[in-house]
User: What shape does this take?
Amino acid sequence: HTSTVVGDQIFLLYGYGRQYFDDVYALDPVSHPPAWTRFHPQARKEVPPPRNRHSATLVGSKLITFGGYGGRGRFFDDLNVLDTDLMYWRRTETIGNPPVARGAHGAALVGDKHLYIHGGYSDVFYGDLMVMDLERLT
Assistant: This one.
């Protein structure tokens, strides 16, 4: 899974525990006692499939997920956006040469529009560094 601070909540996405999950939870650590909320985000087409070893990067109030592993040798190369205000998933199509399918990679936002994807693995280990311009989605 990934956990990402969004405002005053901690969002937990996806995960694995004897099966792969597509769960979206938020923890409110300020409430007494701290409280979990499970969300069921909607999507225009389909909710991203269950996975782990993905990345989740916060841009404003949106969580951008990339890649991951769905079991049985299936790695993902998809880029999905969870709008945490509307609780809505959107799959984003990219142009150019996107990173190949992988999991266990690193992701970092530089500035407010450049997402860097580094390393990870699928059938091989990667040592590459890819940059996605989130403004143009390239």
In short: The chain has a mean pLDDT of 94. The two ends are 26 Å apart (CA to CA). The chain has no helices and twelve strands. The longest strand covers residues 20-28.
